Amino acid sequence: MAEGGDVEWELSKENIQPLRRGRDISALHQALSQQQDGLSSAIIQQRQAFESELRMYDGDDPLDVWDQYIKWTEQTFPQGGKESNLTTLLERAVTRFTEGNKYHEDPRYVELWIKFAENCPEPLDTYRYMQAQGIGVTQASLYIAWSEEHENQGNCRKADLVYQEGFKKCAEPHDKLLQFHKALQARVSRQVMMIVENDNSDDEPKQLERNSLAELKRRGKKKAIAPINRVGSSIRSISGGLQSIGAPVLGNASNSRLVVFDENRTQIAGPSEPTLESWAAPPTSRAKENEQNPEKWSDVKIPQKSKFGHAVMAPPPPKPTFQPFVEESDQLPTMTPCKINPAVNTVLSARKPCREETPLKRLQEHHQQQKEAESGKLQEQSMYCKELLLSGAAEFCIEELRAERYFKKVTQEDGGQKDAASASP
Amino acid sequence: MTSTLKGITLKGSAELVAEFFSFGINSILYQRGIYPPETFTRVTHYDMTLQLTTDPKLKNYLTNVVSQLKEWLFECTVQKFVLVITCLETNEVLERWQFDIECDKSAKEISAPREKSIKTIQDEIRSVIRQVTATVTFLPLLETPCAFDLLVYTDKDLMVPDKWEESGPQIIDQSEEVRLRSFTTSIHKVNSMVAYKRTDSA
After folding, report:
1. B124 vs A2: CB contact, 8 Å cut-off?
2. If you write DSSP's letter for every residue of A137-156 in order, what string do you get?
3. What's the number of domains chain A is made of?
4. Quick check: is A69 in a domain?
């Protein structure tokens, strides 16, 4: 190994989450060197200080404390995870300021929302929620993050639409939005170019063709209906007639060409703008498992499992095309003979997406509860300062709060100022 | 390169170091997304997979720079080699990759090869490039389109060749600096370092 340089970060590079704003290298070194022996007391103290600051702050910019706390957490816990409590923290911060429009267009608050969305399983829902609630609708960063999420999911068209929406709302800074939009267009056009180039390599003119010699997959659950694949002029004739079949008929997706997005045309076509959902109530709890609608029992059939168990494992990938580097000094480990046929091993199955309770849903429920409270429907009323005790990422007890106020008072009195504020919460 | 595997001469050393810069620059340009990833192709060198640009203009430019650099390395007149990444629109310097080069000038008089096998040197180079790749873990995301520039610090009395021009150091103010590994051919020693804009957090 070559000498020089602090190599701590390199040894644990896989455990460092990259940050958009980069990392403070000294904080990183500190965090990594303290990693072995759990949370150091300095970190715990700092966290406690932030927690009590959250509760005791009485200036006119409470978001600032949250912002600093979250930034500190990001830098101090490079690998993220449960210990950092970042997700909870973001959720609390975001929920804390939903009512009242004070921060809705504050770049810091929007930034927190975007971080929160990135931690959600469904970021797009969160962005839509933000739009509906009017959070950050004039901030370019919302549209950029939103569009990037669409692009990551491979939907460049929607990514573009998001920018159009941003332009319509005159999001600021306008330059930034324009620049990211241009970059998106450049990326998309490059992709299209590459595809076109690849297409040109095989000279056959690609026209829509009917699938021949392919299996016809049936549609519909009760009645088997063969899909209708039509090509060229015959497609149009369908739409004229009366359609009695419920299933969608245009099934040409398999051999359609890539559609180049033309923004001018869609503008003429008109109603392409995203519909605003009201989000007043949380969506129906489709997330719950094992909930069945009432139906006639005599018709129900238990789905049969296939012959070979649940799922068919993918075949092992072919040998890599590159040569993995092996140190010369390395000895090949002696191979133990593998007796288990990987094809029948069902121990490792893909994790089913857990949709029980997403952060966004909790947020909506919170929102809902508040509305109910306003309209006087809420039956409970807590007779202690519940908000203060639970407001941070950690829970405080009443005595802690009381002590905090007491110490504050003591220091103030030491400073020569008599303060008559009562210490009881 | 030297015919024997055991020793290294000044010429061989200059060639090795120049080669390192060629691969190093390509790696940085790829890792930092200065050029679109589709314009790079994979090659295997130093027993690792590296990305090389396929853009003809860039390739040509880099070949020119590296061959000039090789000459200077051979004359032992280079002190520093710097790759600067600037924002295309504001011209603000965002990142600065600095390679300090220490030349052992006595190698010019004594032509006997030094004892250090190419393999050990390449091992060292490999770990430098690996570390360059690993820096993405802490470097800030470059969100704007960027350009890059190459600076060479030479001894004072050197003639500036055509197509090169004098330039300022292009230092980032308020920067965070991270030293990376170094390697030595026993004639040239290269210390690497990256500087980037400090985050404004406390």
Report:
1. yes
2. TTBHHHHHHHHHHHHHTT-H
3. 1
4. yes
